[in-house]
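User: For a teaching handout, I'd like to show students what a predicted protein-ligand complex looks like in token form. I'll give you the sequence and the SMILES for zinc ion. Please answer with just the structure.
Assistant: Understood, here is the input followed by the structure.
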Amino acid sequence: MHTNLEYYAKRQGMNTFTTLILVLLHIGAVAALFFFSWKCLIVSVVMYYIATGLGISMGYHRLHTHRSYKVPLWMEHFFALCGALTLEGGPIFWVATHRIHHQNSDQPGDPHSPRDGSWWSHIGWILFGETNHNNTRLMSKYAPDLAKDPFYVWLNNYHWVPNVVLAVILYVAGGLPLFLWAGCLRIVFGLHATWLVNSATHMWGARRFATRDDSRNNWWVALMTFGEGWHNNHHAHPTSARHGLAWYEFDPSWLLIKVLKAFGVAKAIQVASVHSRHSEKQAA
Ligand SMILES: [Zn+2]
Ligand SMILES: [Zn+2]
């Protein structure tokens, strides 16, 4: 298994197509700044919450990867669809990559550890690492629970389709400015925010728990990612639906899970407390 993981993390040549798309998106994101309007900003913020907040934080991460709470299947599918809107790949790819990260955090086999260089952990692993975005068969080994669901398999293979549909809608509804804002700029901001969880929160911030990795609690990354920046708490208690464990650790996704619980939608919620002892077993 370890040979496989090392192979997976091995650096190879530049991923030309991914790099080209990212360069174009960044150009679009800068261009957006010349077309500011309040409408564009508001739509972008709402789309950002749907994609990165509901899709990544609520969906791909706390639900699909760690199964820290349960919701009806239709809502699980909806969160996954939102996750695809970040252009961070389909659910099977994302979940598999993240589970490998937890298995080997800051050790050989970690797809994105700052110990291999801070830029590597931020964007290098995307540009130069092995891309298995569409290799559903390989990634399914690490996410067999998701691979059983035909919807997740479809979404993993065609993870870019929801964004193409959204791009057309944005262009028709608001022309070039809305396309640049809620499409390009919103995606680029979301990518960097998520990548900061891999880079910044393994370098900068406080460590409440003595985990075996370099994870940190970083308030400004938490603000950008709806609570994902409380990353040391998370590595100490990976299955906890609550990441901000102290009252002052703002965790919007945890608040939403509590609301869903109040309505009887979210169930089987796992929670660590600030006083819970970090257990090696839980972190394994
Ligand atoms: Zn981590
Ligand atoms: Zn995690």
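For the handout, you might add this sentence: Residues 4-205 form one domain.
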